[in-house]
Amino acid sequence: MKLFINPTDHRLRAGWRLLIHSLLVVLITLIMGSGLLLLNTLIKGANIAFLQEGSIAANSSLTLYSEFAFACGVTFATFIARRWLDRRSFLSLGFYFKWKAILEILIGILIAGTMMGFIYILEWGLGWIDFQGYGWQFLDSRKLFTDCGLVFILFILVGWTEELLSRGYHLQTLSEGLNRTWGVILSALIFALLHQDNPAFSISAFIGLFISGLFFCYAYYQRMNLWLPIGIHIGWNFFEGTVFGFQVSGLTDLPRLIYQSTKGINIVTGGAFGPEAGLILLPALLLGVLLIRLWGKSEFVNNPSPQADTHLG
After folding, report:
1. Which parts of the chain register pLDDT below 50?
2. pLDDT of residue 233
């Protein structure tokens, strides 16, 4: 029985909880995804314009559906596992619902924007950016900004889902079962592996994503909440792809405010995968660490925000 139950707290061991949580994520995601595809088919059959033809959402509807289904799968599976397997509250993963939560998200987005702006300026200064123009010079302005807004919503889903999964359930369950060090390392490894199906994925991309996973763990532990890493994740993707025109972990078919192509050595710039796969990532992450520390020491947040109750009766 000790193989399954931890005699100290009389719960399933962390490994079994992680396995059940993963199965729940897959099951709920499949159910939600099938339901969304069926709904879209019925709507199209009724000749209702669910998504505007020609928009980024229409062209990438499967991506939007799958991301929303995955977000639902991770959220519901985590709530179920946290409540009935972990005997902890969902909020204890690092959530609180006060005005500071919005502030943490916004600061995270600004930190990510500063990091990505630093990468762009550095590459431009070294002659590695071939600037081609602005988005409104290539596309209708209304369509461009509508598509950018829809992609921002997509990145909100991505930020929420990946941080809830990786820095929420994976990191904290592994840390409980092993220790914090192994929790950080293993959760960052899983985070990197979850991107292996992305276009142009490579060893350098894996290493960059692993280091990025460590950085997101740092953001979580500095503030002891998920709002800041969620904000950084949203801002990183949005500023990387939509604002500055880089590839977002290999993804290229996104609306862009800046049209540019990257030159230089791929191992430095990240090549077709984007900055996450290049050495250019390292100084940006160091800048991010500095900004997170400065935010933590600011007069607005003298102490990390406390987590909600951890034990359920």
Report:
1. 47-59, 304, 306, 308, 313
2. 98
DSSP letters of the chain? -TTTEETTTTEE-HHHHHHHHHHHHHHHHHHHHHHHHHHHHHHHHTT--SS-TTSHHHHTHHHHHHHHHHHHHHHHHHHHIIIIIS-S-GGGGT---SHHHHHHHHHHHHHHHHHHHHHHHHHHHTT-EEEEEEGGGTS-HHHHHHHHHHHHHHHHHHHHHHHIIIIIIIHHHHHHHS-HHHHHHHHHHHHHHTTTTSTT--HHHHHHHHHHHHHHHHHHHHHTSSHHHHHHHHHHHIIIIIIT---BTTB--S--SEEEEE-S-HHHH-GGG-GGGSTTHHHHHHHHHHHHHHHHTSTT-SSPPPP------
User: In the chain, where are the structural domains located?
Assistant: 1-88, 96-302
